Amino acid sequence: MRGLWATNWISGFILTELMLRSNEFCNFSTEYPSLLELGCGNGMSSIAAAINGKFNVSTTDFDNNALTLSKENAALNNQTSINYFTLNWHNVPSNFPEFDMIIGADIIYMRNSLISISNLILNKLKPNGIAILIDPGRCYVEEFLEHLKAINENRILLLFNLITKTNFKNNFKFVKSLNVLILQKLDSVVDIERSNANFKVFYSHIDKILDQIHVNFTENRVSDNCNLEYGFSV
Ligand SMILES: *[C@@H]1O[C@H](CO)[C@@H](O)[C@H](O)[C@H]1NC(C)=O
Ligand SMILES: *[C@@H]1O[C@H](CO)[C@@H](O)[C@H](O)[C@H]1NC(C)=O
Ligand SMILES: *[C@@H]1O[C@H](CO)[C@@H](O)[C@H](O)[C@H]1NC(C)=O
Ligand SMILES: *[C@@H]1O[C@H](CO)[C@@H](O)[C@H](O)[C@H]1NC(C)=O
């Protein structure tokens, strides 16, 4: 039985869709050519970024089984250019490279990782880089953002899916679309109207994502353990 990481969480689909379609509305891959994924799981989002063509994708996980599965899935998609690194958020080598874009889906789920992940972003995101994180809206998010205060707020894009409702407040602006709640600080790099138009389709497009990305689901499902704290699988 593979671990929770092998499951396709909703957040992973959102990130995958974003990576597949980012050039349609942001030209992300030309603006931010080097990309680091934190906690790649089964590799779907990194594969999507690689299919996108222009990103130099480095995908990481603490669990080598996740990297192995990601490689298998990349091979199913004929994606051979992805770089794989085992990465411990609590012990990032100082010579680990810096990146233009750091992405992660469902990585803010353990309180004892908040400081490590935020330090990683502060240390390894290039000066004009951007971090894109997707989360169902877990209780740790505000605390996590506190740790990232040193970074210009326009460089963090946090997208929340609607499955868990959250009560974030004040300096955030909510954009409610059909299925996805987009929470971003004002003046975020992604224009709200455009992102609204694009994110609207996320959930209804899961089948289409799976048409484009071939993921080996065998043994990937973990059915009984999915409580709200960890999000939902589909
Ligand atoms: C993306 O880049 C291409 C070519 O550089 C350009 O034609 C297009 O308008 C850009 N798209 C957006 C949404 O900025
Ligand atoms: C892609 O990124 C990896 C990891 O940082 C780096 O070693 C490699 O040189 C990069 N490749 C290109 C073509 O920039
Ligand atoms: C991968 O390449 C093989 C051999 O060229 C081809 O048959 C297959 O359809 C490709 N798979 C995808 C997902 O593009
Ligand atoms: C999918 O994974 C299973 C279990 O690891 C493996 O037996 C099977 O060969 C894989 N399928 C493909 C198409 O890679």
Automatic annotation (TrEMBL):
The keyword GTP-binding does not apply. It comes from the Eukaryota. Coiled coil: none annotated. Pfam families: Methyltransf_16 (PF10294). GO terms for molecular function: protein-lysine N-methyltransferase activity. GO terms for biological process: methylation. SUPFAM superfamilies: S-adenosyl-L-methionine-dependent methyltransferases. Residues 1-16 form the signal peptide. Keywords: Methyltransferase, Signal, Transferase. InterPro entries: Methyltransf_16, Ribosomal_L11_MeTrfase_PrmA, SAM-dependent_MTases_sf. One of its GO terms (cellular component) is mitochondrial matrix. Belongs to the methyltransferase superfamily. ETFBKMT family. This is ETFB lysine methyltransferase.
